[in-house]
Amino acid sequence: MNKKINFTKATLLALPLPPAGKREAFHDLKTNGLQIRTTSGGVKTFSVFRWVKGSRRPERVTLGRFPDISVEKARTMAAEINATIAKGDNPADAIRKFKGELTLGGLFLDYLERHAKVYKKSWIEDQRQFDRYMKKFSERKLSSFQPSDFQRLHHKIGEENGVYAANRLLSLLRAMFNRAKDWGIWSKDNPTQGIKKFKEKSRDRFLQSDELPKFFQALQEEENGAMRDYFLISLFTGARRANVLGMRWANVNFKRKEWRIDETKSGDSQTVPLTPEVISTLQDRKKSADSIFVFPGKGKSGHMVEPKFSWKRILTRAGLQDLRIHDLRRTLGSWQAASGSSLPIIGKSLNHKNPSTTFIYARIDLDPVRKSVETANEAIMKAANQPTKRSNEKKIFPIPKKRKKK
Question: Is it the case that residue 181 has pLDDT exceeding 50?
Answer without folding.
Answer: yes
